[in-house]
Amino acid sequence: MADPVVISSGNAPVATQPAAGQASAEDPGDGEVVTLLPYGFDPKEISKPRGRFILLVDNHSGAQGINLRLDREAGARLHDVQVPASKRDWLQAVNLPPGNYLLTEASHQDWVCRITIRPGR
Fold first, then answer.
1. Where are the domains of the chain?
2. How far is Cα of residue 25 from the mean position of the Cα atoms in its chain?
3. Which of 23, 54, 74, 103 has the highest CB neighbour number within 10 Å of its CB?
4. Which pLDDT does position 29 carry in this prediction?
5. pLDDT given at position 27
6. What are the tens digits of pLDDT across the range 89-112?
7. 57 half-sphere exposure, CB direction, 13 A CA radius
8. Largest distance between two CA atoms of the chain
9. What is the pLDDT of residue 28?
10. Could you give the C-alpha distances from 63 to 14, 18, 82, 95, in angstroms and in order?
11. What is the pLDDT of residue 9?
12. In what order do the strands lie in the sheet with 89-94?
């Protein structure tokens, strides 16, 4: 297994492991910041060409810990992550195939960010 990729986010470094559907340590790609506010995600939709990128969820919701999920819209759950209040942000390198995905918070069904990955670059 490859060594963890350590990326600094806010106050503390965050370690991520490359795995299926994730970017490698060599080329993390560009980034997308999604802010979680008391009423949900901002932006509510992201459209990107396929390729590696860093997904950063910046928690400004006021919730004491969040449970983030990244699912293929018509399929499998790719990530299910408990983010404690002490950490606040979630940072993940991803390399999603073209399709539609939903980023959600488990305790708030109406908090949804739709991510569309387009086939072209």
1. 5-118
2. 16
3. 103
4. 67
5. 56
6. 999 999 999 999 999 999 999 999
7. 30
8. 39
9. 58
10. 20, 28, 12, 28
11. 36
12. 40-42, 30-37, 53-59, 89-94
- Which amino acid is located at 74 in the chain? A
Q: What six digits make up the tokens of 119?
A: 């086939």
CA distance 104 to 99: 16
> What fold, for 5-118?
Immunoglobulin-like (2.60.40)
Residues of the chain predicted below pLDDT 70: 1-29
DSSP states of 84-117 as a string? -TTT-EEEEEE-PPSEEEEEEETTEEEEEEEEEE
The pair of structure tokens assigned to 2 is 């490859």
pLDDT at 30: 86
